[in-house]
């Protein structure tokens, strides 16, 4: 029998998949979207995502840990499923590549400004390739390792305490927002996305274990880190300044100075490569899982290389921050639809399957 | 090969090849330490945006006699200045090590937002860059070189750093300055320096309304400003007051100060705003040439009363200056804002109409912690 993912690892995968570049823009985005003390609204996002995770939990319960593809293929003919499969492959491959590009783009604001971006992207893709090929069980172990590789950064926040002032929070709640509420919320929700891929993990979970305790642990850890970051920023910046700062979390690190090192922002951001590698890995792994359904006869190694090359070539022209952000926004909308639509579809199929079974027994 | 070994190998390889691109060789780089921006001719500035940009670069070539290279140019922005300055030195100019940005008085009066914007946008500048205002031209402050002092850039940087620690000038790092400019309940304040009598020295506190310089506090008043500004520990103050039986004012040295400040805002039904600043100070009495006996408790109480009166008087003087000049350098607006509804706060003109007319009280409580080693 294949080794199963431990609930703790599952939680860490979810956390690493959710927390990424969004963390760096989030404090400004919540201020723009919801106004003063907008970080409170993150709780709302958390609960919406939690409801979505409950749907996935239901799928897990009803299907008894069966792969969603098997559930779907039992009821829906394969040729009808193909378009959905192709869409999912494209969506997840693009997300994987675009997020890596976004990371490199921001990295280059501070480091290696004039170097070509491709060496960085290719390195991320090579690491991703190596990880994906080792399978989900090993990915989960490596992810846990990478988690401890970056989580210490949280403690750097303590150096900001002398300049942190609660008066900057103001007593106003949700006042003075400047962004479109819907657009802003969608952008913010992208920082919680990543949980939808748990749907594909179902066959790799041990049905006897409390897997979804792990999932909620990861999801809550994400919220905790987001709220911590926002509280740091809201007390550090004045509200007006927060609205003007493009990457508030990054600038926060600029302020920390040690006797032996200055400008640790240039050092901290590269550490987040771990999060990006995990995110890209999970998206490509998911795309690969679907691809193996469509083309089971081709070796996964070649399939993965094919996906990576196509996704990279297709996004070749997406090389400025404006274009990348526009892509991410569109992909986020699609991903939210997938996150809610796919489990609902599977639930429907399982329901239909049950009715059929009952009829069959009568 | 195990996947983990492969990953470590790739990371190791990647770390090494980073040295192959975007190279910077330290001997070939001119690190600007101190940068001065001046508005020399107002008409010219309004028409052409011409600024006098002065850069002080440490000289590391052993063949050169001077400790630093001072180069300057006329340019429309600090970015254009970099290109111009580059033509005046054999090294590649970089601005990532700027510690202090010195703004001339006229430029400060005109507003600093436009210039600060580029410093904020460019990631090369750290947020810990110090903002300092020169009383006069920044260029004039930067020009003199003193044989008995370190190179001017280091001297100014360390001078500001030390005085900030002693709480005689406010800390105005780029980030803090911008925070206060962007805050509708606080105005920024920055240290001011001057070149006079063949010396470069601290010249009080420059007070701003948003990004525009309005007025300054003299150095002898800066300490009182700090009592009102917030909590601190360190620093000393010399008080002088009249005493019976003494012809000249008595000198009293109040040192090793520990200050805590509290702000209370009351808004009554007529929407009148009343602000009370409570200042608690504890310090040592290290110098006193009056008739009281420092060893006696009742005399200490008398002196404490004197200190309180003295500090209250000076504090009220400062607050009057701030209110008449419409500069909220103490950030009282932030405390008032917290007492009001959002719509009310947004509908009023805090800076120009409300702040100059509110009642501000100061209550000082001073304690003599000890009185040295003599009875």
From TrEMBL, chain A:
InterPro entries for this protein:
Spore_GerAB (IPR004761)
User: Keyword annotations for this protein?
Assistant: Germination, Membrane, Transmembrane, Transmembrane helix, Transport
Give the CC-aspect GO terms.
membrane
Q: Where is it localised?
A: Membrane
**Source organism, top-level taxon:** Bacteria
A single GO BP term for this record reads:
spore germination
Q: Which Pfam families match?
A: Spore_permease
Annotated TM spans = 7-26, 38-60, 80-104, 116-133, 145-164, 184-204, 216-239, 267-290, 302-321, 327-352
Q: Which family does it belong to?
A: Belongs to the amino acid-polyamine-organocation (APC) superfamily. Spore germination protein (SGP) (TC 2.A.3.9) family.
PANTHER family recorded = SPORE GERMINATION PROTEIN A2
What protein name applies here? Spore germination protein
Name the source organism: Aquibacillus koreensis
TrEMBL record, chain B:
Q: Does the keyword Chaperone apply?
A: no
Q: Does the keyword Transcription regulation apply?
A: no
Q: Which UniProt keywords apply?
A: Germination, Lipoprotein, Membrane, Palmitate, Signal
Q: Where is it found, in Gene Ontology cellular component terms?
A: membrane
Predominant location category:
membrane
List, in alphabetical order, the GO biological process terms annotated in this UniProt record: spore germination
Residue ranges occupied by any Spore germination protein N-terminal domain in the UniProt entry: 22-194
Kindly list the places in or outside the cell where this protein is found, as annotated in its UniProt entry: Membrane
Among Pfam families, the record links this protein to: Spore_GerAC, Spore_GerAC_N
List residues of the Spore germination GerAC-like C-terminal domain. 203-372
InterPro entries per the UniProt record, alphabetical = GerAC_N, Spore_GerAC-like, Spore_GerAC-like_C, Spore_GerAC_C_sf
How does this protein sit in the membrane?
Answer: Lipid-anchor
- What family does this belong to? Belongs to the GerABKC lipoprotein family.
Name the UniProt record assigns to this protein? Ger(X)C family spore germination protein
Organism listed in the record: Aquibacillus koreensis
